[in-house]
Design goal:
Layout (H helix, E strand, L loop, with lengths): L2 E2 L4 E4 L5 H9 L1 H4 L11 H11 L6 E7 L3 E12 L4 E8 L9 H16 L4 E7 L3 H9 L3 E12 L2 E11 H11 L18
Parallel strand pairs: 5-6
Antiparallel strand pairs: 1-2, 2-3, 3-4, 4-5, 6-8, 7-8
Helix pairs in contact: 1-3
The structure holds coenzyme A.
Length: 198
């Protein structure tokens, strides 16, 4: 099923989305904001990657769509660990003009609901560079807690950069939606499960 947010829809990645993904990998502005090797990626390499990862149930990647702009980015749950019930979350919106309009927040709330309500995970992990204000603000607004700083963890742009590590527990997500009533006005608003207190 597609995963409905308040505004966004998270859907499966199609082969046709490889180009958006490739453009994001090749965009110096985005690559400077995320952890990674920052290699130029060809269409061939991107399609090979897509085929190699097709059907990988431990690393889920969804396309973020909005009604007005269609496919605008990608959101992920990777390194899913079923024993410890946790996963790593990542998100990228391809174009600057689609950012700072609440899309990231809705996509993050939606992937959290999916992770906790559908997959039964207990925690999500993420990380960001200290100067990535939109990422920091979005995660904090969505109930994430900073858990530490990995000093000089990533070498990028000729220097070692600190990486802020953060996480959210299922119980913290349920506390958040009880307080901010995020899903209350949606058609499929769900009662918060009674056993969600951690
Ligand atoms: C991070 C990202 C996914 C956030 O998505 P988004 O749609 O821009 O996020 P939102 O609009 O929902 O929320 C961003 C918040 O940061 C705020 N913000 C944006 N620029 C800011 C700045 N320079 N300083 C402080 N706050 C800032 C916005 O005002 C908004 O807060 P508000 O809702 O309280 O007004 C998106 O910016 C992105 O894809 N960036 C490039 C890739 C990236 O950095 N990925 C994350 C790696 S950890």
């Amino acid at each position: 099923m597609n995963i409905a947010g308040k505004r966004v829809t998270l859907r499966a990645m199609e082969k046709a989305d490889c180009e958006m993904s490739r453009e994001m990998f090749n965009d110096p502005e985005i690559e400077n904001l995320v952890v990674g090797w920052a290699l130029p990626v060809s269409s061939y390499a991107q399609e090979r990657w897509f085929e190699a990862h097709y059907g990988d149930s431990l690393n889920l990647r969804f396309v973020i769509e909005t009604p007005e702009d269609g496919a605008v980015g990608i959101i992920t749950l990777t390194d899913i660990d079923w024993k410890n019930r946790r996963a790593v979350h990542g998100i990228k919106l391809a174009k600057k003009e689609h950012r700072s309009k609440g899309t990231g927040t809705d996509a993050l709330m939606t992937i959290m609901r999916y992770a906790f309500d559908e997959l039964g995970l207990n925690r999500l992990d993420s990380s960001w560079f200290e100067d990535n204000e939109p990422s920091k603000r979005m995660h904090t607004k969505c109930g994430w807690h900073v858990e530490g700083v990995r000093r000089q963890y990533v070498f990028k742009g000729g220097k070692f950069r600190d990486l802020t590590v953060a996480g959210i527990l299922a119980s913290e997500y349920y506390d958040l939606i009880r307080k901010n009533h995020y899903w209350d006005d949606t058609a499929d608003s769900k009662k918060v499960p009674d056993n969600s207190g951690g």
